[in-house]
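Re: [help] complex structure
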Amino acid sequence: MSKLVIPAIGPASSVQDGGRHGAQRYGLTPSGAMDRLALATANTLAGNPPFAAAIEIGPFGAAFTAREGAVRVALAGAPRNADIAGRAVASDTSVTLADGETLTLGFARGGCFSYLAIEGAIAGEPMFGSLSVNARAGLGSPYPRPLQAGDELQTRQPSGATERRIDLPSPDDGPIRVVMGPQDDEFDDATKNLLLDSEWKVSASSDRMGYRLEGPVAKHLYGHNIVSDGTVNGSIQVPGNGQPIVLMPDRGTTGGYPKIATVISADLGRFAQLPPGRGFRFKAVSMAEAQAEARKFAEMLRTLPDRIGAIESFDLNIAALQDANVAGAAVSAVDAGTWQTASPADTLAPD
Amino acid sequence: MAATLSPPRLLPSGDSAITVEFSHDIDDAANARVLALDRTLASQSVTGVTETVPTYRSLLVHYDPVLTDFDALGEKLAALAQLPVPPVTKTRRWRIPVVYGGEFGIDLEDVAKTLEATPDDIVARHVAGDYRVAMIGFTPGWSYLSGLSQSLQMPRRQNPRLLTPAGTISIGGVQTGVQCLAGPSGWHLLGRTAVRTYQLRRDPIFLLEPGDCVTFSAVDAKTYAEQDRAAGAGEIVAELMAA
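Output below.
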């Protein structure tokens, strides 16, 4: 059995998979990857099922070392500088670490989360069918908490298959699409237009529970308390201060603030990758369009293996990377910064 | 049961969930319909439905939009919600031991003052109640109970606390609650129970189900300490009463 040891890793990094489903009726949130397409991409490159457990790496840097054998990994999601002893590693490819070699990753560029999948996946004890970390509930395996320096993940020897790359369609940078409701009738037309016509930014005090938005103040028609009801990933709730919060996979399963709209499922991963401070807009779409997009997204996930190709010449690949100026010397960037690891109190209002 | 039931509102919660809302406010009849639709969906498989979350006045139905869509599923749910509420065949009744006041229920004195009663009166009123689990949500095992005596109803705190202890028994508005994990709360803390409504590596992991009946019994600090040790070792501690 090989293992991947972690000499250094920044905050907001944890083992995540497709999530923990079926116990929201008991208050257990689903957790799971913030960007499902990126998780599935990394896993597909590594030869794993799309929603197997992988390492979700937050905005800061990290390093991973193979021990007791080689380990094959694949990196996808937010691009970042990556190298093995000075050899640049491209995003959206697989690579094998020989015993003792270290993969060093820099800061995320133009996104928040990258996914490092390990061929053979991560050994652990699933709870409710998932290894995903939910620290508050004491869940997650092999560690029921975010990853930290010194952690070790058990895996298996690589199969020796050729390294792979994947060709993904160019990312959509259009507005984040929403379906209005379920409580849009708690807001007047002016406030709904404010949501759709304003530029918003994700606040730095955001986390896996919720992304706080900075922008104009949304006003409630009838106050900010409703009878608590169920939430979903992407619910846009408006608490008393009028600054919307988009609920993410570690959300409370129920909440007592009105939810003006919901981010469509096909756009949620793209939304999760928005770096704090970058401006973006929302756009309302019909239910029919949202569901057509959900089906397209599911088809995209299903056909990811068709997009895989072999890396014929690693050297050529490096030259191309250097031309594109994405393979500069990787820096170690593991300073704990301002990325919030504490939970915003507003996402925690119990009722 | 009335011959005609008002149709629920079908509210879109994104492209993968429908909120089936039976009432605007907290209402026992609406909650009964929520739990009835939840039982119906548990007993028959409806294409695309993946998970349901009952709350006071609505049922959140998660579904896979590849297998069904809002209109088709909404129509099906509306039809199922119109069926007469089936009688509950078996209701579980739990008695949950609580140590009230002092360090365990730091708001008991203030609640008594606000309601112009003695702390003993407040405890007596709370213990006399016959409650029902209306919903479980927010964090694992947090059980919201309906049936709070009007004589105990008061607004929630102006300033929610960021951290309240595991096992807290509290009141807020028209509700009382059993909180399993430490966490934030804007409710008034009356006491604590050793009962874990959520405990990993115990069978069952979740003790209470929506629809269960609950009563409380007052215990002293010494009994609480013993029960807490037993519960920590995986004992259920709550008493399951004969129906």
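Chain B has two domains: 9-81, 93-241.
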